[in-house]
Amino acid sequence: MGALREWLSRNPVASGVIVAVLAVVAIALIFTNTGRRAGGQAKGFFYDMNKGQIFVSSTEETPPFNVDSGPEPAVSVMVYTCGDYCDQKDKWQIAFLLRYTDKGKDLIAQAGTYQPAAAHPQEISQLMLAADLEQEIKTAEGDKWVSLSSPESIDIQKTARSTCPDGTETQYTICVP
Alpha-carbon distance 79 to 58, whole Å? Predict the structure, then answer.
């Protein structure tokens, strides 16, 4: 443990990146898997890539998943408002979009094979954590998906948190259905 502390103190940039990546993973855990870990009954915000619209659905499906509106899949979306206005759809803002890689989806499917789930909490937790590291993020307007653990991901999240559409810096509220 002492060697780790020493390395971290000698490498402040790397330390900052590690902390930021852990924060990103924590956010992803909260907003993309809450329902699946609670038995799949929860709802989540998703984004229809064909229509460019937010919708609410069960968290049973792992994004990206097919939708009837066209060839592009639906993905998870982090929704926020500037102030406490989550109950007003017209105030919703998109912070960023999230999806799992094929490997991440496979890990989640593997975690779902443990029956009964209560008998295998450690195995399931390890698989879900590994899956969470297999997420990608992008802005709604962006073309490029990047790893959730990348420096580019951190920039996307910082930008989403820093200002509201009117250019003011204010308190924002992360919305959940």
Answer: 16
Strands 93-100, 74-82: pairing kind: antiparallel
What string of DSSP letters covers 12-28? HHHHHHHHHHHHHHHHH
Of 100, 95, 64, residue with least CA distance to 77: 95
What is the number of domains present in the chain?
1
Do residues 157 and 147 touch, judged by C-beta distance below 8 A? no
By the 8 A CB rule, do 59 and 177 touch?
no
Per-residue tens of pLDDT for the chain, all 177 residues: 556 566 556 766 655 555 554 444 444 444 444 444 444 468 999 999 999 999 999 988 899 999 999 999 999 999 988 888 899 999 898 999 999 999 999 999 998 888 777 778 888 889 989 999 999 999 998 899 999 989 999 988 887 776 677 777 667 788 999
Give 122: exposed, middle or buried? Use CB within 10 Å, 0-12, 13-18, 19+.
Answer: exposed
- 84: containing domain: 2-174
